[in-house]
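Hi L.,

As promised, RCK N-terminal domain-containing protein:
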Amino acid sequence: MSEPHSPSKKDVPKHLRRAISNKVVRARSKRKPRVYLATRFAGEPLREWVQRNLENSLSGNIFNATMAILSTFQALFHVSLNWSGLRIGLDPWMQEVDFSINLAFTLEYALHVYASFDRLEYVVGLFPMVEFAVVLPSWFDLLAAHVAGISSTSTLLQTSRMLRPLRFIRIFRLVQFATSSLQQQAWAAMLTIVSIVFTTAGVVQATEACLVACDDEPRVCKCRDLSFPNLLYFVVVSISTLGYGDIAPVSTSGKFVIAFVILFTFIVVPIQVNRIQATISSHTDYSSAYSEAKLHPHVILTGYMNAESLSIFFGEFFHPSNLNWNERVVILNASQPTSEINKVLHAYDSKVQYIVGSPMLDEDLTRAVLCDASACYVLVNRQSSRPQYADQCCGLITIALRRGNPTCPIYAQVINSRNAATLLKMGASDVVVIGMLKFSILGRSSQVWGLPTLLHNLLAQCNSDLDSHHSSLQWHRQYLHGYMHGIFLVDIPRTFSGLTFGDLIRFLYDKVSIIPLAMLTDDGVRFMDMEFKLGATADPNLCCKVYAIAKGLTAVEGVTKIPPEQILSYRKGVRRKGKSMSNNSLIEMKKIKPALGNEIDQIRDRIINMFTVAEDYDVEAALGLAEKRELADYELLPGEMSEYERFASLGVPEDVTDHIVVCGFPSDAYHFIKTIREAPMPDDLTPSPAIIFLAPNCIDEREYERLRGFIDVYFVQGSPVHFGDLKKTNIRWAISVLILTQASEAQYSDPNMVDADAITIVRYIVEISQRTRMPNLVVELDKSSNVKLLSSLANERRTSSAFGLPALVHRNVSHRSPRHHSVMSRRDSFWSSLDDGDGNVDATLVLEEFIASGRVFMNSMLDSLMSECYRKPWIAQFLHILITGSVNDLEERRLFQVEAPEELIALKRIALASDSGDPNVAWCSLIPASSSTRQRISRSNLATSST
């Protein structure tokens, strides 16, 4: 039986190559034969075929390079022959060499004349005329050698001697080797000056030479023999208008040549300098290519760019705790960076290179060195007024990147979940579905208090020394301790094989405070049953890969430092317990195979199938096709409203309570409602809460068709800042209020005003809720810095119990208290100390009351997730099933929240799992409640968490 094929490291992304230990020698594929001549098309004239080969073929390139080398050699050969003075007669070997080179130039000139489209236009061109004049001297010499009566002083040979220096002009052929327009202009300017100097020196040497012996002074003989170095010095001094006078022409023709060259230089050289200046001004720092590909691996970032997204992305990517500290980021964007983006680029000047170019053009992808890229990111415009068009642009960019590099991981963003499977088929390695992910989190946050902050803290990197900071506020220490934890992809050594997943959780939490959540399998990320027995992978040193919560890389590295003796001892103790399982469970678990992480195509196919099946099922269920077929022949009576008209105009029944009020309409309302409806409830008798949308305008009828399958969904037309409209939603009986930002493209002149509507609504709802029960309030912010404006509201209402912040956040300090300034100064000092750390985000935002209490969803979380895709493959899939569960998971494993039973209060976290009464339920996080509510615990039937 043959051994299974193991992929070589060249087929795997660079950050995953360390997972492959067994090396496989692969036979080299046969080199594709080179095509020297272009194929001649049927009916194509010979002249056009020759012209096409001269311009666009390997033979044409070789021919042009050979002619350029011969031109340079001929110029140097002429200098060597006339170095000490003008050589009148040549030795036979010199004549043979000169004639052979000249014959090659003659054949080249004839070939270009034959292949040119308009021969007359080509012949009268400047450079063709020079090339024709260059080949004449050798033919004149040949004619003089075979024709009697032609002396060395004859006009023919004198003309031949004057034309020979024009060979220096042929060195302009070296310009074709320039790789950019700036190099081309620089080479052209340099070669112009060199050609003028050397050609003039040669012409003056020929005109000033004494063809007949003369013993008088040069001014009397009207001639003089000068060496080539002296003539070079004379020409340089003359055209620079210095004119020392130590050397001067004595012949009339020599004086005329010098005068003409000086005037010619005054005209030509400034033109070349102006061209260089124009080229430099058109070339910015963003037009050069990435040149450090061999020294530093790099990733390519393209798509839609804005300053805040780049700041968050770079902060996560270049965080000191990441392993890819030596990598660079190459931004490829079609437009020049804005002033705000330039500020971000200057902060990472040595690690980021911005290239102005289109990912749709091969030459721009070549400048970004796509062939050697470690990964590619394609960002979408989240605020686009045309989401479908934005997704299509990301799809086209993905195709271009995959065409340029078939093996590079490509992580792309899309807005609409219906485009996710299509983008994966186009070549994306993984897709972050912005709309579905964002509104799934917002939907669950209406029932799982603090969920936005929990996920944001797990995804964002933080300072490594937060424990060393001290604050006068008692809740800071506990909160920051949890904030320091994050999600990591952990390699579990082979010595853990044989343990159950539940035993792995308990053992790792006890030894290194790591809490496994899910396992990477050949089907993607999966939540495992607590009784699942760990097996082994193809790697002899690896048991499996798990997503786990850990306090930094130090805790993750501690897994490999656990002595094998402790693992074996623990495994023996577990075996004595003799746990039994059903046969069905054993059969199902045997089908699960741990993955190394390099099964990219297989896992991607599973994700494509997941999105495709889920979308087909969702659309069919939402449209209610069966019901629609039954009512297909039903016609509305005169005056009777359609289902959509009733939804848009009837409003909310008066008896609706314990519901969710949403200010604004989500762009993906279907997945928002679906997440709420599928979320587990405390018991079977508790119905899923009703959902009421409050917005100025209703969704269109086509979008409503997707929502027809959901019950208890209502709409109120109005404004959230109008008390009468809020009263129609029965907000005093609502359990949650979600406020969506109304961000759109180019809506505000100041981009920081994008959250103005959401902040105004929050302040209004808090104001009218002071005398009533404050619901679970969650607001979406597009700009993270705007959360400070919300916290100013918290400072004003800090003594109000209606605000409902956690008890640890409550401080009996009023803004009118004389202690206010001292407390605020101590808090500002503490925040300043956090800013001095090595974190990637502003630590002051972490400690803002609205964030600490879990009331803010920041879109920066999506940028953090995008950056994590490179180091933690399939983390987007992990986050998706954590929030909404898996389609084919009958156990409905996901994150949910219940009130803590009184008997569990005051227990240590490690004791919760054993005392919970259900081995498949593990506790995730604790949310300190206000004095008026009981303590809440987030838990999951998948794993524990210590945030």
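The first strand starts at residue 298 and ends at 303.

Thanks again for sending the construct details.

K.
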